[in-house]
Amino acid sequence: MTSPFVQGTPNSHDEIDFEFLGNVSGQPNIIHTNVFVLGNGSREQQFKPWFDPAADFHSYGIFWNPYVIVWSVDGTVIRVFRNWESKGLPFANKQPMRVLCSIWNGDYWATENGQVKINWANAPFTSHYINYRADVCVISKGGNDVERCTIPNRNNWFVEPAYGTLRADQIKDLMRVRRDYMVYDYCTDTKRFNGIMPPECSLPIY
């Protein structure tokens, strides 16, 4: 599984995942997204890509600010996770995070629900990244200036309230991707949650 992701401190484990679940050769990969807040994940959404992610480089984006988390592929919005603290729900905005990229063995669950196992004869496995760019507010090593990064100003443009909403064309893209390419949404998995669905599932998706 290849995964660029954003992660906070291990103790509270905030994390934003953008992962590719592997498969046997010739079978499609799956784009896997998730959000951990205070150590709790279980917010997975998965998509079948409309392209071959191994054939060429693509642009994968995670936009994270105090209002919203947005995942995108080549500028197309594929998922939104909104801040619903006003409804009493937790959001990943209490700590700084760092970007990590890795490749790891998730064949106990990631590949066709664990049916396809890694063929270690094909090792070593590699992933390649180019043109990485981050527009971020950098905190000090001790992390004592976190609040500075929540104040809207020219350097922290991304925390302006205007960057908490999607444009009409982005909403159109999001709904198209959900309709045509989504293969799993935790908000529709009633069996998994015994019919008691996460509260955000009854709120607007964007």
TrEMBL record:
Reproduce the UniProt comment on modification after translation: Contains at least one intrachain disulfide bond essential for its enzymatic activity.
Q: Does the keyword Glycoprotein apply?
A: yes
Q: Where is the GH16 domain?
A: 1-129
What is any one of the record's Gene Ontology cellular component terms?
apoplast
Transmembrane region(s) = none
List the EC numbers from the record: 2.4.1.207
Q: Which Pfam families match?
A: Glyco_hydro_16 (PF00722), XET_C (PF06955)
Q: Which UniProt keywords apply?
A: Apoplast, Cell wall, Cell wall biogenesis/degradation, Glycoprotein, Glycosidase, Hydrolase, Secreted, Transferase
Q: Which family does it belong to?
A: Belongs to the glycosyl hydrolase 16 family.
Recorded protein name is: Xyloglucan endotransglucosylase/hydrolase
